[in-house]
Amino acid sequence: MKRRTLLAAMGASVITPVQTKDIPDQAAATGWQNWSHSIAPQEADIVVPRDVATLKKLIGETAGGVRPVGSGHSWTGLVPCDGAIVKLDHFNAVRAVDTQAQTAWLGAGARLKDLSPVLAEHGLAFRNLGDIDVQSLAGATSTATHGTGRELPCLAAEIRGLRMVTGAGEEVEISATQNADMLPAAQVALGVLGICTEIQMKLVARHKLHRRVWFAPYDKVLSDSEKLWRDNRNFEFFYLPFSGQAMCITHNITEAETTPRASDEGGEGVMQLKALRDWLGWFPYLRKKLLSAAIADAPEEDVVGESWQLLSSPRNVHFNEMEFHLPPDRALEALEAVRTHIERYRRDVFFPFECRMTAGDKAWLSPFNAGPRISVAVHTHAPDEYEFLFTEIEPIFRSYGGRPHWGKLNRFTGDDMRAAYPKFDDFAKLRAEFDPEGRLLNPYLRSLFGVA
Ligand SMILES: Cc1cc2nc3c(=O)[nH]c(=O)nc-3n(C[C@H](O)[C@H](O)[C@H](O)COP(=O)(O)OP(=O)(O)OC[C@H]3O[C@@H](n4cnc5c(N)ncnc54)[C@H](O)[C@@H]3O)c2cc1C
Fold it and tell me: Which one of 114, 257, 273, 379 is least enclosed by Cβ atoms within 10 Å?
């Protein structure tokens, strides 16, 4: 296996900045599905309002309720509903950029990948990004989407203000000057307080990053991980199941010249991991030998580029994912328990496991609000069966005190969430005030918030 294809398996590629695509007029279509197609096609209308007045009308008058959607990259049942699925694609402006305070009001429906080049023109950038940047700003923040970095919080923690139309159809601003006490409740809100139209984000100065990618024995990566997180702005690693090897990635701020980088190879690497699984799944020794030989030849990647061009990259092979955020002192033990289980019982798994760290914050429903967390993620190829994630892997994460990513596969109930989040009932109370008739709820969210 060539080095580039292995790197591509984990999304090592250049992003070409893309202009926002033409947005259709407000028109109804149906058949919405999430990115991995783990959610069945929906019969609800898909509506793309052009202005706040239309949005208010939609919330107030749609029989069966409404649910906002971003780019549909969540796996949990946050979006399906009987009434209308609302896309905020027209709400994509960048305004009130304050280069001194490093803040800007950004359209809630804008895609992160479209915002970054515009922010760069103002000398600004997001402090951190996750593996992909095709999510809408509101979609990414609503589920506490995160990247990696010991000192770097999730995107939602950077929210300084929001404008939304509540479930009661009222326009509300939550910011430093209005309803400021509600900010920690609204930062991570799953789209149940209101449909956001604009979000004010704290940004940082535009910066370049030095990216290094290398392979190392998994045991060594585990023992070095604390230092790697301490010494690097961004550090993460991917464990390649059945290999004993991990791929490490660091990013650090630099003033060095930008260097060229190979382009995306369309997920070829991950398909090679699949081929090894298909041919040698029942011969773990041979599988490990071949993987190790390929990895041994892999030279380091060492490049410099704009932060937003290096942190995120396309994911061309569709997968299902479970990710839990774990207390740092127990997370690597949990990862080891998951690795042992999968290598013993689940030879069908071939996607690398991902391990990242996120700084703590104060948002009521942020999985990081009790302090920094280390996140461990397990992926399965979209066509493959993934029920075992719930029955075999989730119990391991739970036993180590993990909180699930709000957008990724999990079977936490309302009671589980209440036990995990001290402010859960306060949030549920606020939700009932913002949306007394439950116009923004669907069956999944009703069950989560205990609404009949
Ligand atoms: C390939 C892939 C890679 C990923 N990588 C990462 C990663 O690196 N880190 C990470 O943390 N997560 C990651 N995720 C998960 C993803 O970031 C989250 O699930 C995110 O919420 C998806 O954003 P979206 O725009 O697709 O929102 P959707 O999935 O469409 O919606 C998410 C939530 O936001 C709400 N919402 C959407 N728009 C609005 C609005 N205008 N107002 C109010 N609420 C709204 C929705 O109702 C829903 O509750 C990944 C997912 C995929 C498929």
Answer: 257
